[in-house]
Amino acid sequence: KVVDAITDATKKAALQKELDEAKKQLEAKQAAAAAEKARQEAAEASVKDLFTNGDVTGTIKDTTDQEAIDKARKVVDAITDATKKAALQKELDEAKKQLEAKQAAAAAEKARQEAAEASVKDLFTNG
């Protein structure tokens, strides 16, 4: 400790105060970095959980719905690292796109079934 070697009590106290402040700021910075890392890991896990086998380059799970995507988005929104946040946002956008495609396909299938049912009913005089 260099500060301990100083004999002038006033200077020693002033330097010790500065050293204590620097240590406090370093600890706060380390705590913030650890918290950010934890947020990033949670967000990454939330996004991966939307996809089959956690593969964000694959397809979403059958159980992935808008609520699950919204929940993951909230976790991603808590990230402060813009680059990491943007990468996860891109994966969320892909999940949303796939969900919309599934919903559109389901709606189209329902419309086809209803049209077929109506056609069959039209074959009968009573409908």
Describe the structure.
- There is one protein chain.
- By secondary structure, the protein is mostly helical.
- It is 73% helix and 0% strand.
- Helix 1 (9-48) runs antiparallel to helix 2 (66-77), helix 1 packs parallel to helix 3 and helix 2 runs antiparallel to helix 3 (82-122).
- The longest helix is centred in the C-terminal third of the chain and has 41 residues, at 82-122.
- The mean pLDDT is 93.
In short:
The chain is built from three helices and no strands.
Report how far the terminal alpha carbons are from each other. Answer: 95 Å
> Percent range for helical residues?
over 70%
**Biggest beta sheet summary:** none
Radius of gyration, in Å, reads 29 Å
Based on helices, strands and strand pairing, what is the structural class? Answer: mainly alpha
Q: What is the strand tally?
A: 0
Order of helices and strands: HHH
